[in-house]
Structure formats: structure tokens, C-alpha cells
Amino acid sequence: MKGNDMRLAMGVEYDGSSYHGWQLQKSGVRSVQQQIEQALGKVAAHPVRVFCAGRTDTGVHGEGQVIHFDTPAVRSLRGWVLGTNVNLPDDVNINWVHEVSDEFHARFSATSRSYRYVILNRPTRSAIWRDRAVWIHHVLDEVRMQQAAESLVGTHDFSSYRAIGCQAKSPVRTVTNLIVNRINDRVVIEITANAFLHHMVRNIAGVLMTIGRGDQPVEWSREVLDHRDRTLGGVTAPPQGLYLVDVDYPAEFGLPSASKV
Predict the structure, then answer these.
(1) Is 185 a catalytic residue?
(2) Contact criterion met (CB below 8 Å) for 142 and 185
(3) Is the Cβ–Cβ distance between 46 and 240 less than 8 Å?
(4) Can you tell me the distance from the alpha carbon of 52 to that of 34, in angstroms, rounded to the nearest whole number?
(5) CA 66, CA 54: separation in Å to the nearest integer?
(6) Could you tell me the CA-to-CA distances from 220 to 72, 88, 149, 162, 207 in Å, in that order?
(7) Contact 66, 10 (CB under 8 A)
(8) Strands 242-248 and 61-71
(9) Could you report the per-residue pLDDT of 6-32, keeping only the tens digit for each?
């Protein structure tokens, strides 16, 4: 960060249905990062590069994404929010902005991240939820899914639940919360961890849904974990049911969580 720059953190919300993921891509396809950098550049009157808490894949949504960027431009916090939103498409929105110290990094300062996976579990598909949940017409037993989920809480080697092409240096992650609930015709998986591997949530969701259908026993989630081999894991669940819902940071940065916005 240059001497006259200040660092700003922002809370971002987006519907990922029309985007090829978060990350700016050389091919020029539409990405969430591209839209935000273009909008911020207009407000700042200079090119802006943003850094995010967690990159999301094609079709994945963000309710509590956090970004940061550096700028010499002086604007009110309200001006940053309103000015950026005016220049964003309707499916991307800035919820808050906060000035932070130069020690803050949206990705590396995060202490935990929370995701939600939404399953529409009914005989017929939905016009409303088609891009916001995965539709499973087989009856799912959420009690079995919760029982299976309990084996994944704690610190484990999640090699069997990562994408084969995942580039993370270590497959060890700590899951602090993994809850499966039914809300009418939706089965919702909530998961919090210190960090996630590529496709980790979708692979966990795929295993839990397989168990929920009765195709595998409850113990299978632990057996997959113990294999430490992605080729022996389950099916990767589709992206449209996945939401990045919250990112936590040390209190010293003073950032709001998504649930408090």
C-alpha cells in the first residue's frame, strides 16, 4: 500500500447465476470481480484491484463475501457504497464499507468462513429456486444426514472432500459447525470452518445427500474421510445451491458479520 493510500473493506452480495465465478479471467468472460472492479474504478477515478475472502465458482452465490482494496481517493463511506452500487448490475450489491488498517487482508485475516447449501427436496422442480437451490426429487432423510455430518466436525485431513485439482498446500481443515435442517421442502446444510478446500462444501453435500437418499449408510461419510483419496469420494453436488454466507475476522478490525448487516 502506498503512503497516501487508505485500505477499505467491503461486504458484497451477489447472485452468481450469470457469472463464471468470482475471479477475473483472462478469457474475458463475465465474473463478479470484473463487475466490482469496473464499478469501483468509476467511483475512485482510477483502476482498482480487489482481493476477496474466498473465490466462488461458477453459479455459486455470495451473501457475506468480503473484499478489500487500496485507494488514494477520498470519498465518504456512504459515497463509496452508493456510488459503487449505482455502477453495478442488479445481481451484485455492496452492503457496507469500512476503513481498515494496512494489516488487514480479506483472505488471510479471516478466522473462519461459513457456507450454506440449499436443497429443494420435493417431487417437482421450481421456477423460483431453479438457480438458487439444487433440486432433488428423491426423499431425503435429514436426520441421517445430520448423523453423518457429525463425523466431519473437528480437525481432519479432507483429501477425499477436495477437488482433484485443488492447489491448497495442506488438506487439513477444522470444521467447527456442520448442521443439517429441514425447512418445509428445503434441506439446508450449514457449515463453518477455518478455511475450505476447493469443492469441499459441494463434495460434503454430495456425500450427505447420497446418505440422505439411503444409498449409503450413515458411516460412509467417515469412511470417505478416512480414505484420504478423492477418487474414492462421492459425487460433487451442483453449484447453484451453494452460498458464501459469512466471513469472520478478529474484533480489532471492527467489521460487521453478514448476519448483522
Answers:
(1) no
(2) no
(3) no
(4) 12
(5) 8
(6) 54, 44, 10, 16, 8
(7) yes
(8) parallel
(9) 999 999 999 999 999 999 888 778 999
- Please identify which of the residues 5, 57, 141, 248 carries the catalytic annotation: 57
Sequential DSSP letters for 167-182: --S--EEEEEEEEEEE
Q: Which tens digits make up the pLDDT trace of 134-178? A: 999 999 999 999 999 999 999 999 999 999 889 899 999 999 999
DSSP letter, residue 61: E
Question: What confidence category does residue 112 fall into, taking pLDDT thresholds of 50, 70 and 90?
Answer: very high
Q: What are phi and psi of 14, to 5 degrees?
A: -155, 150
Cα(197)–Cα(70) distance, integer angstroms: 27
Cell of 56: 466462488
Taking CA atoms, 18 is separated from 31, 84, 222, 225, 261, in Å, by 8, 19, 35, 33, 25
Confidence of residue 1 (pLDDT cuts 50, 70, 90): low
